[in-house]
Amino acid sequence: MKMHHLILGLVLLMFTACGKKEKSSEETKSTPDQSIPVRVVSISSEVVSIPVQVSGIVSASNEARPAFKTGGVIARILVEEGTHVRKGQLLATLNLTEINAQVQQAAEAVAKSKRDLSRAKNLYADSVATLEQVQDATTGLSVAEQSFQIAQYNQSYSEIRSPISGKVVKKLMNQGEVVGPGTPVFYILGDGQADWVIKSGLVDRDWARLRLGDRAEVHLDAYPDRTFVAKVSQLADVGNPQSGTFDAEFAFTGSMPRLAVGLIGSLNIYPKEDAAHPIVPIDALVESNGNSAVVYVLQTDNTVKRTAVRVGQIFENKAIISSGLSADSKVVTSGAPYLEDGSRVKVIN
């Protein structure tokens, strides 16, 4: 009887175990794997120069606005607008009638002062004139001689000679007009290969990255199919109060076509970089908006983290990440558009 009960208990135990196994199998079948299949890549790190992109205006580094030292009536204008001039070339002269009279008057004053001094010395020798009178006559002669030098100097600068070699862009005065001292008569631009530059304004962050001599690629609207090379030649140490930027100047290198002041261009400036930047395939970028984008970074528990990054530059189907990622991370490429923060993934590389 006892043996009968023992056998019955064993049979019931076997049926119970089988039932649990079938139930467990059914539960496993009813909860399929929710992981999203993706491909991931490891982030590489390279030293890449992220360019500074700005716009600029062509100008001339060598320019002049010559003027007369003294005022007067313009007697001759010897060049016209568009004329190429050499350094030292005569450009204009004043009517010398008044200036020559001033020189002659100063010369006569010198001659009179010499006679006065000679007479005072003779009278002093005869004890008629005092020493003070001799000293006054000596001072009078010195003042007259200096006035004569001033008149001669002004006479020599009653003409305008070009201070630079270049092109007369603008003639500001005409023959017969009365001109004041220091009033510009011409506007001259140096037009040699070394005279052309392109000027731009830099924001604080870009100004801090650049150094003198950094290379730049220039694209001019006037020559859309050509790329010109320039280098940083000047960086302002004081911000421009009107624009709020720092003025920068870039000197063209190599042969240049015909240029004009005011041409518009865009620049890609390549600073000398020493730091390495993370680089990812552009397939890893989602929700891109300008320089901002989102990537999904693989976590150790096979989930992904939504990470905002800043894109410095895109080249050859790769993106240089300027901030937001570390070089030891892995990012999702294939399958990234279907993810959200915290999604569980299955790597199928």
TrEMBL record:
Domain CzcB-like barrel-sandwich hybrid: 69-188
Gene3D superfamilies in the cross-refs: 2.40.30.170, 2.40.420.20, 2.40.50.100
Alphabetized UniProt keyword annotations: Coiled coil
Ranges in a coiled coil: 96-123
Record's keyword annotation contains Coiled coil: yes
Entry keyword Coiled coil: yes
Record-level GO cellular component terms: efflux pump complex
Family statement drawn from the similarity comment of this UniProt entry: Belongs to the membrane fusion protein (MFP) (TC 8.A.1) family.
Protein name per its UniProtKB record: Efflux transporter, RND family, MFP subunit
Organism this protein belongs to: Haliscomenobacter hydrossis (strain ATCC 27775 / DSM 1100 / LMG 10767 / O)
